């Protein structure tokens, strides 16, 4: 009878230990997922902001050096924004 109780106690301890390990693993993965989400949010922001900024700077330079009847700044700003959105979109697709 004592051996049966000891086996039951050992299996109970093993069961509790397995559940604890699963819970700790899930908590660690959840924290990683939060940081991954924040990192992705930042990467997407920079992927859009940098080409937009560079397009705007290039457009200002073109407006000063090669004036036209249209605005180079606006044209390059929109082009940079579209390029940034495409870069971010491709990056998100690769992460999935």
TrEMBL record:
The chain crosses the membrane at residues 35-60, 72-93. InterPro entries: ATPase_gene1, ATPase_put. Keywords: Membrane, Transmembrane, Transmembrane helix. This is H(+)-transporting ATP synthase.
């Amino acid at each position: 009878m004592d051996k049966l109780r000891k086996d039951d106690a050992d299996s109970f301890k093993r069961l509790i230990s397995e559940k604890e390990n699963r819970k700790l693993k899930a908590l660690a993965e959840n924290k990683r997922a939060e940081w991954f989400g924040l990192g992705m949010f930042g990467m997407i922001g920079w992927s859009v902001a940098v080409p937009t900024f560079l397009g705007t700077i290039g457009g200002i330079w073109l407006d000063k050096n090669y004036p036209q009847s249209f605005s180079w700044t606006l044209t390059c700003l929109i082009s940079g924004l579209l390029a940034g959105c495409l870069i971010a979109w491709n990056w998100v697709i690769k992460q999935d």
